[in-house]
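User: Before I run my own analysis I want an independent prediction to cross-check against. Here's the chain; please return only the C-alpha cells and, at the end, one sentence I can use as a sanity check.
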Amino acid sequence: MRLVVQRVNSAKVVVAETGKVVGEIGKGLFVLLGVKDGDSEKDAKALAEKLAKLRVIADDAGKMNLSVKDVAVSVLVVSQFTLYADTSKGNRPSFIKAAKPGHAEKLYENFVDKLKEKGVKVETGSFGEYMEIDAKLDGPVTIIIESGD
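Assistant: C-alpha cells:
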C-alpha cells in the first residue's frame, strides 16, 4: 500500500456527478491511499498505526513534533488507484499493479477503520467515484509512505 500524506489547512472532496460534499476537514492531513495487488489487512493496519503517530503537525514553535493523535485535527482519506501507475513502457500509464476494485475497497475501508480505532477523526472520499478535491496545503508538507518500509 502507498500513502501520499499532505498537511492541509483544509480539504474537501466533492463527487463530481452529484456535486455532493462527501468528506471535509479543517486543519489536518489529506491522504491519498493506493492499494496494489498482493496488499493485505496487515499492510492496512501497519500504515494506519504509522499515520496515527506520524509527527508532521507543527507545535507552538513551528517544529513538526505533533501527530494527529496529539492534537485535535482530522484526516481525510481518498482512495487513488493511480498511485500505482507504471509508465516504464511508453507514455500511457498501465495500472496492472493496482489491486482489483473489490480488494482495494476492502483494504481502504479496513485502513479507515483502523485509524478510527486509534481515536483519529476520519473523513473519506467516495470509493470508485470521480471526485473533485479542494485542498489548501500547509507548508507544503508532503510525505510518501509505503507498506513494508
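Sanity check: Helices lie at 41-53, 101-117.
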